[in-house]
Specification:
10 strands; 11 helices; alpha+beta; about 15% strand; single chain
């Protein structure tokens, strides 16, 4: 089961007691995966690859309106999973479409508008319910082991912008965009877990955070290991340069004739070729900067000798 399917299964188990929340969630579903079928007796049908989503839609609709629901499965030519479809028929079809913002009852007749009625999302709870319905109808989320991306496909640019604005009211960075000519709403990074929790998918949000924390820790360990490797390489390179300088000086004069501090530094480096600068400074009982200064003087002296060869 994909991560998206796991989220939707969890969301479908949420039971809403308030009628306004159930209507708001049904509106989110209707605006994303519902469609009007015009015939002698108009009907509304919903389709999804998730049977749980379709069953939930039928339960919400028949609980709110005088409708009959007929469910079926349809094979998809280019997809592995079949589509679950529910068709709603009855006298209240028109009322459902008006209430959910798909139709508008104007003075000159009924028109197709597809908007989010303000009264439908007037409270925080109804906004959560509407967004939950929209995700159930047309949402997807990448597995956190591969990336942090969540999106909701939209049928119109206006709807995408309206959904993005609803999400931003909860302090999340939702944006609208187009992919292959189709509008959508998307979130990335930390906002994905925030949106999952907002909809009520607490289990999915926790799994998302667990995987992300594990990945972040693994990346930290890798960065630290790379840094330590780089420091080791730097120490080895510096040590080799210092040994080469000491050998060059020794070719021109006995090391014992060096000033005492430089002689001590040269002797310690020859004795401990793999030691770090700090380790040599500790052996000499001086500061790291002091030891660094001594080696700088040895390198400069070796360069002088090289120039007089």
């Amino acid at each position: 089961m994909s991560f998206t399917q796991t989220i939707k299964e969890e969301l479908c188990r949420i039971r809403l007691k308030r009628r306004d929340c159930r209507l708001a969630q049904l509106a989110g579903l209707t605006q994303t995966c519902g469609a009007l079928r015009i015939s002698r007796t108009p009907s509304v049908f919903y389709q999804s690859e998730s049977a749980a989503v379709v069953r939930l839609t039928a339960t919400l609709a028949t609980g709110l309106y005088a409708l009959e629901a007929a469910m079926e499965r349809k094979e998809q030519e280019h997809r592995r999973l079949p589509l679950a479809v529910v068709t709603l028929a009855g006298a209240d079809c028109r009322r459902l479409l008006l209430d959910t913002g798909v139709l508008s009852d104007e003075a000159d007749g009924v028109s197709l508008v597809k908007r989010i009625p303000d009264a439908l999302v007037s409270t925080e709870e109804t906004r959560r319910a509407f967004l939950r319905g929209a995700f159930l109808g047309a949402g997807s989320c990448s597995d956190p082991s591969r990336g942090y991306h969540l999106e909701i496909a939209a049928r119109t640019e206006d709807f995408a912008q309206a959904v993005a604005e609803l999400i931003r009211q909860f302090g999340l960075g939702a944006r609208s965009a187009r992919r292959k000519g189709r509008p959508l709403v998307y979130l990335k990074g930390d906002d994905v877990a925030g949106f999952l929790a907002l909809m009520g998918a607490s289990g999915a949000a926790l799994r998302f955070e667990d995987v992300r924390a594990e990945k972040d820790y693994r990346n930290y360990i890798n960065r630290r290991s790379n840094c330590e490797t780089a420091n080791i390489d730097k120490t080895v390179t510096a040590g080799l340069l210092q040994l080469q300088a000491i050998e060059r000086i020794e070719e021109r004069m006995p090391l014992s004739e060096l000033p005492a501090p430089l002689y001590e530094a040269a002797r310690l480096r020859m004795q401990y070729p793999d030691a770090t600068l700090q380790e040599l400074a500790d052996l000499a009982e001086i500061g790291k900067s002091g030891m660094n200064h001594r080696f700088a003087r040895l390198l400069a002296l070796a360069k002088e000798f090289e120039g007089t060869t």
